[in-house]
Amino acid sequence: MKYINKTSGSIRLAALLAGTALLGLVSQSALAAGTASGTSITNSATLTYSVLAVVQPTITGSSTAFLVDEKINLTVAAAATTNVVPNDTAKVLTYTVTNNANSPLDFTLSILQPAAGDQFDATACNAYVESGVTPGYQALQDTALFIDELAADATKTVYVVCNIPNTVVNGNVANIDLLATAAGTFTGPNGIYVATPGVQGAVITETVGADTPGIVDIVFIDPAGTAAGDVIHDKTHSNRGSYSVVSSVLTITKTATLLCDPVHFLVNPKNIPGAITQWTITISNAAAGANATLTSITDTLGATLAHDANLVVPAAAACDSATGTPESGVGKGFKVTSSVSRAISPTCTGTVCYFTSANDGDGLDNNLGAITATFGANLLLIDAGHGATGMLKGGESISIIFNTTLQ
Amino acid sequence: MRILNLLLTSALLALLGCIPLSAHAAEGAIKVTSIAQVEVEVVGKDGKKTLKRTPPEKAVPGTEVIYTTTFENTINKAAENISINNPIPNDSEYKAGSAFGKNCEILFSADGGKTFGHAEELKIKNADGKERVALPKEYTHIQWNYKTKLAPGKSGEVGFRAAIK
Known about the structure:
The structure holds two protein chains of two kinds. Chain A is mainly β. Helices cover 4% and strands 42% of the residues of chain A. Chain A has three domains: 16-68, no CATH class; 72-245, Immunoglobulin-like (Sandwich), CATH 2.60.40; 250-406, Immunoglobulin-like (Sandwich). Chain A has one helix spanning 10-26; strands spanning 4-5, 40-43, 46-51, 54-55, 59-60, 64-67, 70-72, 74-78, 82-84, 91-99, 105-112, 123-129, 146-150, 155-163, 173-183, 218-220, 236-245, 250-260, 276-285, 292-293, 296-300, 305-307, 312-313, 325-326, 334-345, 348-355, 364-367, 370-374, 391-392, 397-406. The longest helix of chain A is centred in the N-terminal third of the chain and has 17 residues, at 10-26. Chain A is rod-shaped. Helix content of chain B is 10%, strand content 43%. Classes of the chains: A mainly beta, B mainly beta. Chains A and B meet through α1, β2, β3, β4 and β5 of A and β1, β3 and β4 of B.
C-alpha cells in the first residue's frame, strides 16, 4: 500500500473521480472481511473562498491515495464430538473453515493429534473438503484435499476421517486438531491475489521490513489455535474435535431355578430325575452404553436335560412337562421378556412374548438340544424405539426363559 | 483617427470589463494539500511508547487513517469565506468526533454532500420511512467553514479520521 501524492489540478480531479467510480464498482459490497485488498482509497478536498468579496474559482487540493493491504485471517471451528466404538472405520469429525481475509484464498489442511491430554490416537486420518454435491461426508464425492478458491467471508466444511483402534475402551477420547493454512498466489497487478482454480496456491509470505510502494502488503492477523505450535499471526488456525469411545457394554447372565421334583413337588424340590428347572438367560446393555445389535445366542443343553416343550407351571401335586399346565400354550416352550415394551415378535408387542419349541425358525428354536435365539425379522423387530432388528439400547435388557427336565 | 482611438479604447475597456483584475486571484492562489497517515506505536530508547504518524503502511480493513488537509494563502491579499469540502474517502467510515480544524465551524453531510449540518441535524430515513439521526459512519462529507480571513502567507489545517471498511 503505498501512498501517492498528486498535485492539484482540475484534470487530475476528473481522472480521480473516474477512478473512484470504478473502484466503487469493485468494492461496493460491505463484507465483514473488509474492503478487498488492492482497492485504492483516495482522498481529496475542495476549497472555495473569496477575495475582496469576490468569489474565486474552486480549488481542488492535491489528493492522496493508497492501496488496501491483504489481511490473512481465517477461523477453523470444530463440530460436536463423534462417538465411536472399538475398531470403527471411517469415522467422521466435522469442521468448518472460514476465510476472514479480504481476498479469496486457498487453504491447505493438516491433522495433528496432541501428544497428551487424551487416551488414544486415531489411525489413518485424512481431511477432505465437502464437495457440495451431497451434504454430509460422502467418500466418493468429498475427495478434495485442500480448499480451493474460498471467497472472502465464505465457509467450507471439512471432514476428518479416521479409523479407531480395537484396543480402546469406553470413555477413551482422541483429540484431533485440524489445521488450515492460507495459501495463494499474489502476483496480480500491484501484488493482488490471482485465482488458480484447481491448483493449490503458493505459500504466502508476510511482508516484512520496508514498505514496497504501490504493492499490496500482506499482513497476518490470524489468532492462535488449539494445535501445538499454532501461534498468532502464522497464517494458520486450528480447532479441536474429538472421538469419544461409547461402546455398548453387554452382560449376559444365566440363572437356574429348580421349580419342582416328582416327589416333593414345590416344597424343597431336589435335583432328582423328573425335576423341572427354569433357566433365564439375560442380556443387558449398560445404561451409558451405545446401541448394540444382537445377532444370535446359543445355549446347548447338557445330555441329561430335556427341553420342556410346554413351559409348564408346576402345581402342588404335578411336576411333569407332558401333563402340567403350560404357561402360555401347548408347544410354546420359550418365553422372552423385555425391560421395555417393544415389538418382540411379528405377532407380539409388549414385555412378555412366547415362542414355539419347534425348530421352525421363529426366532427361538430347539434343534436337538441346541437352543438358539436368532435376532432379526422374528425376534426384536424394528419399532418406534428401535431402528434396527436386534437393537438393544443402553439401559435395556431382554431375557430368554425356558424349562428343562432332568432325565 | 479619433474615431479609431475611441473604438480601440472601447474594445479594450470591454475586454478589461470581462476580467476583474482587482479581485480575481490566479488558480491555486490557495495551496491545498491532503495527506493520509496512520499512527504506529514506537518504543523509544527509554522504553516509552509514543505514537508516530507514518504513511499508511499495512492498511488492512479496520485500520484508522488520519486525513489532513493544509491550506495556505499564497497571494498578497487576504482570503475570506474559506470553505473546505472533503468527501469521506471510498471504502471508509468516518470516526465519530475525529474532525478537527482550528477556527472552523465543522459541518457534516449524510446525503452525498447535498446538505450540511451539525451532527444532530443530519437525518436519514430508515427502510420503513421513519427519520432518525444519521450515524457518524453514515456521513458522506465534511465541511469546514473558516471563521476569519486568512492573511497572506498564513495557513490552516483541518482533518479527520476514517477507518477502512
